[in-house]
Amino acid sequence: MTDALPALRPGPVTPGLAPADIEARLADPARLARAEGDVQPPAGHRRSAVLVPILLHAAPTILLTQRAATLSSHAGQVAFPGGRIEPGETPEAAALREAAEEVGLDPRLPRLVGRLPALVTGTGFHVIPVVALLDPPVALTPSPDEVAEIFEYPLDRLLDPASPERRSGVFGGRTRHYWQWPHETQTIWGATASMLHSLALALRG
Predict the structure, then answer these.
(1) 19-203: CATH homologous superfamily?
(2) Where is the Nudix hydrolase domain (predicted)?
């Protein structure tokens, strides 16, 4: 796993959050409710869950992956570990199972603190983000069939209202608007960027 990335340039930010502050804020249901909407699963959409892991370094980070280029969907895109919810599984169990399969995360290590609002993707998934806290160091082994890279994103960037950009593009003949977060080498957009935006709203002062 790569070292945490350097902080962005100074900006109009909420002061950096210590690990204890993060845990306290995410334990507050009213803060989680700040995040944008909560979409019920439309008919025919596949239920899935992702793990949103926050690493509690002195300067906390968020664990992200770049999907393998050989995958049949969302190849090469930045994502959280996750996948389909199997019959009889809770979203939490599915998120932990998928994280173990994709990045080798021991399912006993994450401390689950809550869910962000669900969202629907243009590819037919209803996604439930499950937020978890991790105390470093954490040993990870990416599955080469699913993950090209594991990297960490500085949580301080989420606290800067100027960080995400609102962009638009034409997909399937329709104009869609989406968030994009700054990064030196990766393009963080789409559903992953929306979940980061929801997390940012829950954490900001």
Answers:
(1) Nucleoside Triphosphate Pyrophosphohydrolase (3.90.79.10)
(2) 45-175
Whether 188 and 200 have beta carbons less than 8 Å apart is answered as: no
State pTM to two decimals.
0.85
CA distances 91 to 95, 106, 174, 181, 205, Å, are 6, 17, 31, 26, 28
Q: What is the predicted pLDDT for the residue at 7?
A: 30
Task: Report the candidate in 180, 188, 109, 111 with the shortest Cα–Cα distance to residue 149.
Answer: 188
Give the pLDDT confidence of 28-69 residue by residue, as tens digits. Answer: 888 877 766 566 666 777 899 999 999 999 999 999 999 886
**47/54 Cα distance (integer angstroms):** 23
Residues (pLDDT < 50) of the chain are 1-13
